[in-house]
Amino acid sequence: MSESVETLFESLVGAEPPHDVPVLFDTACVMGGSIAGLLAARVLSDRAREVVIVEPDDIAAETGPRSGVPQDQQVHTLLPAGRRWIERWLPGVTQEAQDRGASLCGPDKTLVTYDGVRMAPDGADHHLLAVGRPLLEALVRSRVTGLPNVSVLRARAIGLRYGDGAVVGVHVAGPGTGGRGERAEKVLAADFVVDAMGRSSRLSNWLRQDGYDQPRLERLEAPVNYATALFERSKKFAELEAGTVLQQFTPRYPSGGVSIAAANAVEEQQWLVMLTGFGDNRPGRTIDEFRANRAELAAVFKEATSGAVTREVMTYHQAESRRRHFTGAGRLPARLVGAGDAVASFNPVYGQGMSSAALHASCLASYFDCLDGGADLDAPATEFFRLQEVVVDAAWAVSAGGDAARIDAENGTEAPEEVRQRRRAMEQIVGAALVDADVSRAFNNVSYMLRHPGTLFAPELLEKAAATAGGAVAK
Predict the structure, then answer these.
(1) In terms of Cα–Cα distance, which of 136, 145, 142 is closest to 97?
(2) Is 338 helix (H, G, I), strand (E, B) or coil?
């Protein structure tokens, strides 16, 4: 009997580092040194004698914004699934982040509301890490590059080299090649390659140009505008009502342009506050506009935006969510996989990016287990793509599904009946989660990427959600 996607998803969330496994490669190459690339390199460090991370940005500095991560100044919250996975593979990162001022927020310090109504306590001991993205990335990078067989090559990946239907090297250009100037080039020999070049990855184009099949690109036009600012925080974490806050509005709610608002108590005794609007709604480009939006938000936002400004508003626009379908792509080279935003990138406000990257790394570890069991390394990584599809489908269902429903509601678009039924069920689940602990727990498990979205559609949960949500509306 085949394993269900729900069970498979949970096994990926719970994956542990291996012990005494065989080395499969002399040299593995990871194209991209952001969170997804770093976590893939950590997995590869158990399987390769040498792991080389190719990254064009100068990442020698401990923290700070990077041009390769344009969204890194916006709010980032590490969900429980991602935090647990990272903590198992890089023990101590959470404590080190806290030592640097990040906030580990349990149920008593987490506030989630929908249309102004707080979600019911679910009785679970979930913890989210509220931390600035540059700091978290620096901590992960320090752990990974501190491994004796992992190094960073400052260069740009500009193409692949093949042999006998497999990737055997990466063409790189830049100062780390040993030549003169940014245009100096060389080929880095590699026995296995991971594409972690982010949303701007050129891998699909390389494959097409090199005679392989190009993975189908799926796009969901969901123009979203972010505005984020930093404020001085007068209270210590222990004194706060909440350390991480997420407030969402349905399209029908009169939200005055703010669709989602988030606030995190982060390092250096600061509040990191983000306002989000869709389409033509620009939620705030100045501190005055930020503060003018406080009336419709939870009281904690007034506190969070009342302190001295420590960084002016920084905006970010993302026009669409996108995913590349490697499963069923046709002819692909062996010894090549993708991870993180290079495969799928979503509306960042759902907070799934870093946890998805962790679960993609978990897929890589599980794939290597399959190779130990006799799978063919010199065939395309079909099993990896199958595992990864489970993770991508789950994240896509949450973020892209929510965005599609919002767009259809705002545009008055009539979705197919099957989609409408599923959306009605989700509306009932969200409504019931505001008042019922069991439904709230099931919903949070999915939101936090601990469980697959399919678990929300168990008949008994749907029945309870329908009855509970109906009663809540009647009241």
Answers:
(1) 136
(2) strand
Q: What CATH number is associated with residue 244?
A: 3.30.9.10
Contact (Cβ atoms closer than 8 angstroms) between residue 130 and residue 102: yes
Instruction: Give domain status of residue 315, yes or no.
Output: yes
Q: Can you tell me whether residue 89 is helix, strand or coil?
A: helix
Neighbouring-strand partners of residue 187: 171
Which candidate, 151, 144, 140, places its Cα nearest to that of 53?
151
Cα–Cα distance list, 236 to 117, 147, 241 (Å): 26, 35, 11
Neighbours of 95 (CB within 10 A): 12
Q: Look at residue 414 in the predicted model and tell me its pLDDT.
A: 75
334: domain CATH number? 3.50.50.60
Q: Are strands 216-232 and 270-278 parallel, antiparallel or unpaired?
A: antiparallel
Q: CA 452 to CA 416: how far, in whole Å? A: 23
Domain count along the chain: 3
Q: What six digits make up the tokens of 130?
A: 């509220």
Cβ-based neighbour number of residue 413 at 10 Å = 10
Range of the domain at 420: 415-474
Based on the fold, state whether residues 212 and 361 are members of the same structural domain.
yes
Q: What is the DSSP letter of 352?
A: -
Write out pLDDT tens, residues 358-391. 999 999 999 999 998 888 999 999 999 999 999 9
Strands 48-55 and 25-31: parallel
How is residue 63 written in tokens? Answer: 């923290």
Tokens of 225: 């505008």
Name the residue type at position 328. G
Indicate the helix (H) or strand (E) that contains 304.
helix 299-304
Domain end residue (candidates: 369, 399, 429): 399
Helix, strand, coil percent values for the chain (each to nearest 5): 40, 25, 35
Q: For 179-237, what is the HEC assignment? A: CCCCCCEEEEECCEEEECCCCCCCHHHHHHHCCCCCCEEEEEEEEEEEEEEEEECCCCH
For residues 325 and 115, give the distance between their C-alpha atoms in angstroms, rounded to a whole number.
35
One-letter amino acid at 198 equals G
**Which residues lie closer than 8 Å to 425 by C-beta, 6 or more apart?**
456, 457, 462, 465, 466
pLDDT in tens, 74-122: 778 899 999 999 999 999 999 999 999 999 999 999 999 988 899 999 9
